[in-house]
Design a protein that fits this description.
Blueprint lengths: L1 E7 L6 E7 L7 H7 L3 H11 L5 E10 L6 E10 L4 E3 L36 E8 L1
Antiparallel strand pairs: 1-2, 1-6, 3-4, 4-5
The protein binds zinc ion (ZN) (2 copies).
The site of one zinc ion (ZN) has 8 residues, from loops.
Length: 132
């Protein structure tokens, strides 16, 4: 189960809803294959789904751009088998820098997030519902 948060800035109009956690269709690699959009990643998932030794980690996380502080709410996926491993990755949609390999995965209330809009610290973060 995941938690949805409201992020708001007290200095400008920045506002974003963020979903973090594990959805019910994240539990099996074969389920992930059904909804995963990126075609390269999807091909990798298909390969791993045929290997019985595959273990995976999948959840919605919040990627923070090191350069411009853009916040990207996206799926983190890591798969590992006896012979192979794969971790998905993202480029920042705003400045094209490679995002950190791991997003924030929980308790963003305790993390100090700078506002991607005006750069001021820190965003107000409020959990507003459970999803899934
Ligand atoms: Zn950026
Ligand atoms: Zn702001």
């Amino acid at each position: 189960m995941g938690v949805a948060y409201n992020l708001t800035c007290n200095h400008c109009t920045y506002k974003q809803n963020v979903f973090l956690g594990i959805g019910f269709r994240y539990v099996y690699v074969t389920d992930i294959l059904e909804w995963y959009e990126d075609s390269v990643g999807k091909e990798r998932i298909r390969e791993f789904s045929k290997d019985e030794s595959t273990k995976h980690v999948c959840y919605d996380g919040l990627y923070v751009c090191n350069e411009c502080k853009f916040l990207l709410n996206a799926v983190y996926l890591h798969m590992e088998s006896d012979s192979d491993s794969y971790t998905n990755s993202y480029d920042c949609p705003r400045c094209s820098t490679v995002m950190p390999s791991k997003p924030i995965d929980e308790e963003i209330e305790v993390v100090v997030l700078a506002c991607p809009g005006c750069g001021n610290e820190k965003l107000t973060c409020q959990a507003y519902m459970d999803w899934d």
